[in-house]
Design brief:
By secondary structure, this protein is mainly alpha-helical. The chain is built from six helices and two strands. It has helices spanning 5-26, 31-42, 47-54, 65-74, 90-110, 116-138, and strands at residues 78-80, 86-88.
């Protein structure tokens, strides 16, 4: 019997985490550092904007945003302007580019043998499943 979807979702998530953490560790970073850097590579953000952008990826017990931004600032990869907006420095942009290459390699590895349409269809299906279950998760009596 084929394993159910929950098994495959958790298994894939663990594999992505483990592979990413090894790649980030080579740069003395974590996935949380990457998430902050990736958001800031697109545009400078104030604390609220950064929080909103990374909230879906951070669960309970995760390090705080202040810890991550502080570590990146101490490294010289992140700075705040006079209005409090965070931005990557030149060194941070270079670090982001180096890590982005590794992230793309991970993505290429787990998408091997799949077309872009396969990937998009999978994401759309998972999004639909989540949308279907969200109301029930808020009110378990609907099940």
């Amino acid at each position: 019997m084929e394993a159910p979807i929950g098994y495959w979702l958790k298994h894939l998530d663990r594999l992505i985490d483990a592979t990413a953490e090894r790649a980030f560790a080579e740069e003395q970073l974590t996935r949380r550092h990457w998430q902050v850097m990736d958001v800031l590579s697109q545009s400078a953000q104030d604390a609220a904007g950064l929080t909103a952008a990374i909230r879906p990826f951070w669960g309970p017990g995760a390090v705080t945003q202040d810890e991550i931004t502080g570590e990146l600032a101490a490294r010289g990869w992140l700075a705040q302007d006079d209005s409090g907006r965070y931005a990557l420095t030149r060194a941070g942009q270079a670090g982001h580019a180096a890590v982005a290459t590794k992230v793309q390699g991970i993505r290429s590895a787990f998408l091997a043998g799949m077309t872009e349409d396969d990937y998009l269809r999978t994401v759309q299906t998972l999004r639909r499943m989540a949308e279907n279950l969200e109301p029930a998760a808020q009110d378990y009596r609907q099940l």
